[in-house]
Amino acid sequence: MTTKEVTLGAQRFDSLNQYILIKDLGSGSHSKVKLAMNQQDNALYAVKWTHARVNSLKAVRKEIAVLKKLNHPNIRTLHEVIDDEFAKELILVLEYCETGPVFTRFSTTPVAEEVLWRYARDVVLGLDYLHSLRIAHMDLKPENMLLCADGSVKLADFGVSFIHDVVLSDGVEKRLVGTPAFLAPEVPSEAGYDPFRADIWSLGVCFYNMAMGRLPFRGKTVFQICAHARSSTLEFNEDLSDDFKDLVRCMLCVDAEKRVDIAGVMHHNWITHGGTDPLARPLTELPHNIVEVTEEEVASAVRTDPLAALLQPAFNLVEFNDRDILMRKGAIGEVMYFINKGYVDVLLDAVGVDLDTIDVEHESDVLVVRQPGEIVGEIAFLKALQGIRDESYVHGYRTATVRAKGPVECLAVSLQDMIVALGKDESSRARIVRSASFKLDQNEEVRLQLLEKTSRTSTDSEREEKQAPFAPKRTIHVLYAEDSMPTQMIVKAFLRKLGNVEVVIAPDGKRALDAHRSINHKFDMILMDCQMPVMDGLEATRQIRSLNSEKATVPIVGVSSGVEGMGHKECIANGMNGFVSKPLNKQKIVDVIQKTLPDLFKND
């Protein structure tokens, strides 16, 4: 797996293999999804990272091979699966459905019955196709029904699917999987259940949820929800048709044996408008088919990283506690770390800040944060390569101090083992050398800019001495939204030297918006770059101003080079309080903070 940064026009994007990662589409507790463009065909895809990686891919390769062969207009296509052994994640490359979910279980506005009818016909066609192949979805809910630009609806997310005859099975499922509010009442039974009838129940809950704007059964646990389902009577709004109510009652029949199957749903009066608009004959009424996969398709079902396979025997799992030091600047570096879980801080000594002034307990000394999937220590690897020639003892010197930011789990590998492995994988060697060189060059760029900006003429010194000292009444909390890593580093270094300022960095407008809305932060002001990927600063400002809380009034200062009309007037028109032009320096930052927050500098 190859990750790097690419530039398109004036914007920079991360990439994964041939996929350019354009923007975030959503995230949850176990996964995140990004929009990506495949450079090989220029088509858009949804790339999903999931932490639900099994210990042995051998157990799921056949199932993945089957799911990749599904071909139906109402089933979301799975194009490929990538195994990231470093981050312990599976990465799914999926068909992109532009509009997203047709509904969510948290929505309270009902879907009009005629609109729901159109959605339902597509969904039942997709489910009929799955059931005809003896595949049960097992997690039907509105969020897994995706609306495309052409108006079609596709079933998605087969992460817990039941595939009969692919796994050793007698057709009875015993796993307790799916989303609790949509589970059939027989699912918790120790005797097992029919997964295809359970799908029908889940679909019935979806139809009720969308038509009523609420869920039919509630409870704090799966068992409470199922108990409520067994004992309650369904209630419907009066404006819903009798045919719709009848279909939902047939689907939510507590007795699974009497519950309608997918063919019965497709023939129902509500789906067919009383027989005037029938669907095609259900595939489940035809002889069952099984998706056949070859050994080659099974073997290639998941794309793996050859470097991970080479290094697997050499990896050691290492855990660090909050504030533990993984490496110190200047020390001999003999190990590289692949971050599995948690985050680490790279401290400011990476850009030439005096090591003696670094306080490993202080947040303002953090230069950048590295996250799961990233590597730390590769610059020492680069230096080791440069000095490897005839030395049997391989090492490099650390160029920064790195500290754990909360609990951290890493895979550690010695530089010696890494060099041996990369001798067998030239593409991975080039990738890591490129990444290390980029970070080294980036650090040097920031160091030189800091030196340039801090070198003062005598006139500068006299002017600075005449100005009032930077002495706010309390610590000032600043959110700085900026996508350029060198600029982030420079501004953070300036603010650290300034003192009495704590800064949080957001790499784009969306993350700035999320950080500002978070209950964990209360910012005195926001410095907002106007031009950023995912969401630009102007849009982020408009969304902040629309918040229904006091956070909507936070002072926001636009930051821009002034190109493409992104100047003072444009910033003010979009709700900002002021504007400062790039490049930023220490004095500009002082001036804009004092001007924006004058009450914090007034003498009582």
From TrEMBL:
Coiled coil: none annotated. ATP binds at K48. GO terms for biological process: phosphorelay signal transduction system. Residues 320-414 form the Cyclic nucleotide-binding domain. Residues 477-597 form the Response regulatory domain. It comes from the Eukaryota. The keyword Hydrolase does not apply. The modification 4-aspartylphosphate is found at D529. Residues 19-271 form the Protein kinase domain. GO terms for cellular component: cytoplasm. Keywords: ATP-binding, cGMP, cGMP-binding, Kinase, Nucleotide-binding, Phosphoprotein, Transferase. GO terms for molecular function: ATP binding; cGMP binding; protein serine/threonine kinase activity. PANTHER family: MAP/MICROTUBULE AFFINITY-REGULATING KINASE, SERINE THREONINE PROTEIN KINASE. This is RmlC-like jelly roll fold.
